[in-house]
Queue: 2 jobs
Job 1
Amino acid sequence: AFDMLVIGGGPAGASAAVYAARKGIRTGIAAERFGGQVLDTMAIENFISVQYTEGPKMATALEQHVREYDVDIMNLQRATKLIAAKEPGGLVEVQLENGASLKSRSVILSTGARWRQMGVPGEERYRNKGVAYCPHCDGPLYKGKRVAVIGGGNSGVEAAIDLAGIVRHVTLVEFDSRLRADEVLQRKLRSLPNVDIIVSAQSTEVLGDGQKVTGLVYTDRENGGSHNVDLDGIFVQIGLLPNTEWLKGDIELSPRGEIVIDERGATSMPGVFAAGDATTVPYKQIVIAMGAGSTAALSAFDHLIRTSAP
Ligand code: FAD
C-alpha cells in the first residue's frame, strides 16, 4: 500500500507527488495522461519566473521533476471508483479502469477539468490558432485585434470585460435570447465602447485561412439568417467541466461538480485531499494548481502523522 496516492498528473498532481516524495513516504501517482491540460497549451507566459515556455515542454519538465524522486508513476491509468477507508486511519481504495485496485493511507485527487467545446466545424482545427479557452492565459496575444467571446454566462461576460481592456474589439455571442450573467457584470459590459452583444445566436462554424482563425459564422435563431463576423480570435466560455464524474456519490461535489475542499485541501472523505482545477478553488491556473497540490500534500502528510500507529 502507498502512504500517499495522487490521482491525476497535471500541475497539481505533479506538485503533490514531489512534496509527498520529499517526506520520504511511499508515494504513487496514477494519471490518464501525464501533463494534463498543459499538454494542450501552446505559449505559457504567466508561470512566474519563467517568462515564456510551451505546454509540451512544461509537461515534460513536470514528469522529469517527479522522476527525480522515488515515486511509482502509473501513466495511462484511469481511476473509476474511490472507496473510503473501513476505519479511521485505514486504507482508502482507488479502483482503476484496467481492473486493478490501489490502496493508500491518504489520497490526493487532482483530476483537473476540461473546457466545454462548441462542437462546430473548425473549432478543433484552429484550437490554439485563434480558438482559445482561457482569457487570463491568451488575452494578451490578441492585443489590438478583434475577438469574439462565446457564452453570456458569468465567465463569458467576465472574459468579455477583461478582453475589452486589451483587444481592439469584442463581440459577445450568446445562444439564449438574453445574457445569464449577474446584472452588475452586464451593466459593466454594456458600458464599454468596444463591445457588441449578439443574442439568440447559434455559432455554427469557425472560419480560418488554413493557418489561423479569420471569423465566425452564426445563425440568428429568430429568423434563421446566417451571418459572418470577421475575427482574429474566439474565446469559448461555455463551461469548465471538472473530471469528477467518477466521484459522484462518494465525495461531496459542488453543484458544478467541483470537489468541495477547505483551505487545507481536505475533502468530505477522511484521508482524501484534492487540488487544482477539479476543485472549488476560485481560479483555474497553473501556478494556482501547483500551490494547491503542495497544500494538499502537506495536509495529507499532517493527516498521516496524526493517524499512524504509535
Ligand atoms: P489538469 O492539468 O487538467 O490535469 C489533470 C490530470 O488528471 C491529467 O493528468 C489527467 O489525465 C488526469 N485525470 C483526469 N481524470 C482522471 C481519472 N479519472 N483517473 C486518472 N487520471 C485522471 N494556465 C496558466 O496558468 N497559464 C496558461 O497559459 C494556460 N493556458 C491554457 C491553455 C489551454 C488551451 C488550456 C486548456 C488551459 C490553460 N491553462 C493555463 C490552465 C491550466 O492548464 C490548468 O489550470 C492546469 O493545468 C490545472 O492543473 P490540474 O493539475 O488541476 O489539472
Job 2
Amino acid sequence: MSNTVKAIRIDAVGGPGQMRLVDVPVGAPGPGELRIRHHACGINYIDVYHRNGMYPLPLPAGIGMEGAGVVEAIGAGVEHLAVGDRVAYAGQPPGSYSQARVMPAKTVVQLPDAIDFETGAAMMLKGLTVQYLLRQTLPQAGLERGDFVLWHAAAGGVGLIACQWAKALGLQLIGTAGSDEKCALARAHGAAHTINYRSEDFVARVREITGGAGVKVVYDSVGKDTFERSLDCLRPFGLLASYGSASGPAAPLNIGLLAAKGSLYVTRPTLFTHIATRERTQAMADDLFAIVQSGAVKIPVERRYALADAAQAHEDLEARLTVGCSVLIP
Ligand code: NDP
C-alpha cells in the first residue's frame, strides 16, 4: 500500500491553471474515517467554485467532492463498511481528484455490484442532488403527475439526470439549454419541451407552453443570468429552487417582488444539508441506486479525462462545451 499518491492541489484561487498534480502523503484513517483507492472521480461545477474562490476553502486545498473506488483501510468506529468494499460518495472535504485519500466515512456508501466505478463516480453528487430537488422538494411544492416544472441547464450533468427522473415521476419538464443540439439531447433524455435560452426568450416560451399559467417549480442553477426572469415563469404560489450559480451569483432579491409576482416562494438549498447524517445519505443513495438499476435513469458519462488533465476538464466545463457527466480517471 503506497503512502504517496498523485493528487490535484491548489495553493491559490484562480483559473484552471491553479490546479497542480503533485505527490501527497496519505496516512492511516483516524476515528470515523476511511481510506479509499479511487477508480474514478466525478467532476462537478462546485469544483469550479472551489478553484476560483466563489466558495472559499482553507488553502492549500484538494479539489473534488465525488468519487468511487475500493476501501483500503478503516478507522475506529466505522461499522457500515469493510476493507475491500466497492464504494462511492459525494462528500466533504474536497479532495476526490486523487488516486487515494482519507476522508470521513459517513457519506461513503456501498456501490451495488451492478453499477461500475465510472457510473458510481459520476452519479453521487449529481444524482443525490436530483433526488432531493425532485423527491424532497416535490412534496413541499405540491407537485403532482402532469405538472410543469422548468429546469435550467437541462443538458448538463445534473440536468440530464433530472430530465429522466422527472419523466419517471410523470412531470412535464421544460428544459433550457445553450444550443439546439443540447436541447435535442435533453428531449432524448425525457424533457417534454426545451428552450434554447441563447436564442429564445425563455419567459415567453414557458408562458406559451403552459397556456399562460406558468410552472409550479423552477430549478435554477444558472444564477445571475436567469434568476429574476425565472420568477416570471412561476404561477401564483410557485417555488423557485435556486441551487447554483454557473453564470455568477444572482443579484440580491428584493423580497417585495415575491408578493408582486404572486405570493411566490424561494429556497436556496444545498446537498450538504440533505446528506448531513449517514442515515439520510444512505436513504437517498438507496433511492438513487433503485431508479438507476430500474433503467429509468441512465447516468450519462460523456467525457473521461486523465487526472493530469483536470485543468482541461475545467476549461471545457466553464466554456459550456460539456454535456452530461465527466469523470477523471486517476
Ligand atoms: P453542468 O454540467 O450543468 O454545467 C453547467 C452548465 O451551466 C453549462 O453546461 C451550461 O449549460 C450552463 N451555464 C449557463 N450559463 C453558464 C455560464 N455563464 N458559464 C458556464 N456554464 C453556464 O454542471 P453540474 O451538473 O456539475 O452542476 C449544475 C449546477 O448545479 C451548477 O450550477 C452547480 O453548482 C449546481 N449544483 C448545486 C448543488 C446544490 O445542492 N445546491 C449540488 C450539485 C450541483 P448551457 O450551455 O446549456 O447553458
